Amino acid sequence: MKTDYGRLGGEALKRLEESAQGADAAQTKFLLDWLNENKDTEFGKRHGFAQINSPWEYQDKVPLFSYEDYARDIERIIDGEKNILTARDAVYFCVSSGTVSDEKYIPLTGYDLEAHYIFMYGAVFGQIRDYYKELSEKDIFGKIFQTGEFAKTYMPDGRMSGIRSSCVYQWLDENGGFDASDYCVPKEILFPETPEDKLYLKVRFALAERNITAIHGVFINRIAGVTEYILHNWELLLNDIEYGTVSVEIPEEQRRYIAGKLPPDPERAGELRRIPRENLSDGIIGKIWKNVKYILAIGGDCFSYYTGKMRGYAGDIPLHHFVYAASEGVFGLAEHVDSPDRYMLLPESVFFEFMPVGEDKRPLLMGEVEIGGKYELIVTNRSGLYRYRLGDVVRVVGRHKKAPVVKFCYRRNQVINVAGEKSNRQQLDTAVKRFAGLTRTEVVEYCVREDFSGIAPGYLFYMECRNAPRNVAGIFERCMCEANPEYRACRNTREIKPLRIEYLREGSFKRYERMLAESGREMAQSKIPHFLNTEEKKKFFAAQVMGGEEKV
Q1: CA dihedral sign of residues 345, 350, 353, 355
Q2: Which three-class secondary structure state does DSSP give residue 275?
Q3: What does each C-alpha distance from 30 to 34, 237, 346 come to in angstroms?
């Protein structure tokens, strides 16, 4: 049965608007109800939840925590122990990168997944409905091209696990109940038995469907990559559509599946062939699917390269940057369709605290933040993370009713991020150390910047080495892939191009320190600029290059 997206979206958006109007009260109610529910857990007893009657008492009694503080309790939850962090059982474990060598597990309760369903899934459809008030729901909600897949993976005891973006789909389909009839890709492709690349299959089903009204993804680089795949394989794909053939190397099982599901369709192939080849990429989405109303993907400044590419591919079709979320929770919804980098925080999803950047003071509550202020977010989520230092730094850029509207600035200890890979300092340090060991090189220091030259973004490393080695960029590339699985995935899909190394003249970092001292800056505050995030830093180190660029 087709999902009633208009009703689902309308109810979710109404709830959000009501909570935004009374944001402070909604936050307090959420916090106190949640503490009361969990007062008899081990954690609740440990921190006196039963005696807490206000957000300020909560701040006084419960210290700030990081993931490492929860690691042992989470291990016990994974082992099957109950009533440790929450009275509710964990039903899903979010898997994300923690340290270089270990995966980080975030237990999720059904209560958390309910918030995900309402605010990250349902409310989006309400926003689309409002954006196209003049159109019928039939015109807006037709077939969805979902560019991702949601492999069903499990913990050893059978509880679900995976990434945040797939949790609600696995949860809804736990007993086979998710209705996939609104998707152009069959359910068995959306929910593969194992994580694997099914790009060709998804593209074939999408091109066969004329009435696609939406393209969904998580990050915009993924949708840009799918679009470029279509462009680069245009004639091959059209021939396969026309004759029902498969002209790429895929497993035999997938080949048989295509043959059984997609017979020859010369009519559709003819329609696509009539699209003029000149400037094919300009507005290609609307040329292929004439009824597409929106493209759903997180973009903006953190994905500037791919956002720009998608603007060209989408033409007049709006991009909806829909959500601000992480493994630890769903935090914000895009303020409007086609408005990047503006997320209204969700008062009922988590309890927020805001630590002013550079100040040692009590974290502020939602009603206390100032527009223009920059804050590190601290969250209490629906799954047992209390006063958790998320590591995200945001700037308040406005208010939606009484809920702050924020722009994501950066993540503590993580600055470089060109395609969603989020390489942090620890990962870069590990890659450099491995590289130095394998090449028997002494790396004095290094720094890195985004490289937006060429057809895809990448990394440009500046290294000051003793006896700089040659022809070793490929070794360093492997070290980066080992240190950061997300980087490796983006390299495998060619969303990030091969990295480059440029060697610096001896003493470059010492000269940088002297430059700071001569400019009157406090040297006690000076740190090695591992991430070149200002034009001043980029220009300085570019001028120190001694030549001999290395690339993969």
Answers
A1: negative
A2: coil
A3: 6, 51, 11
Strand-strand pairing, 351-356 and 374-380 = antiparallel
Residue for token pair 């696995």: 170
Q: Where along the chain do its domains lie?
A: 5-320, 417-551
Tokens 């505050």 belong to which residue? Answer: 525
Rounded Cα gap, residues 460 and 450, in angstroms? 6
Residue with tokens 């200002």: 534
CB atoms inside a 10 Å sphere around CB 315: 13
CA atoms of 310 and 523, how far apart (whole Å): 43
Instruction: Show the tokens assigned to 252.
Output: 């035999």
pLDDT tens by residue, 231-262:
999 999 999 999 999 999 888 888 999 999 99
264-307 pLDDT tens trace: 999 999 999 999 999 999 999 999 999 999 999 998 877 777 88
| C-beta separation of 106 from 96 below 8 A | yes
φ, ψ of residue 465 in degrees (nearest 5): -125, 155
What are the structure tokens assigned to 389, written together?
Answer: 């230092």
Q: Are strands 323-326 and 329-334 parallel, antiparallel or unpaired?
A: antiparallel
